[in-house]
């Protein structure tokens, strides 16, 4: 392998430290993660400002603001799935998938933090 130095078998149980090439890839990964975290919030803000979907789905401002901060995909999907009276069965499936996306992003962030220590 290009980045591994020749060592006797069992000499080092830990993988080698990343070279500068790998460090640049990590910085680009952080940019992609940052953009993916901003993406649902941008979409929710755009939907809230330019449509009436969020106002129609939520009675007050507190729930959408909390959703903007903590669960942006779920908040956005609920606003889209709400048809003026309730959310249909298929709509709940999409809301559940959005919730999984939100929880998955938090889990991935926690995992990255754990392994960066």
Q: What does this entry look like structurally?
A:
The chain is mainly α. Helices cover 71% and strands 0% of the residues. It contains 5 helices and no strands. The protein has helices at 20-50, 53-57, 62-70, 72-81, 89-116. Helix 3 packs across helix 4. The two termini are 26 Å apart.
Defining traits:
5 helices, mainly alpha, 117 residues
Query: Low-confidence parts lasting 5 or more residues at pLDDT below 50?
Result: 20-25
* Helical content (DSSP H or I, runs of 4+): over 70%
The rounded Rg comes to 21 Å
Measure the end-to-end span: 26 Å
Q: How much of the sequence is in beta strands?
A: under 5%
User: What is the H/E order?
Assistant: HHHHH
Name the structural class.
mainly alpha
Count of helical regions:
5
What do the pLDDT scores average to?
79
The outline comes out as globular
| Total beta-strand segments | 0
Largest sheet: none
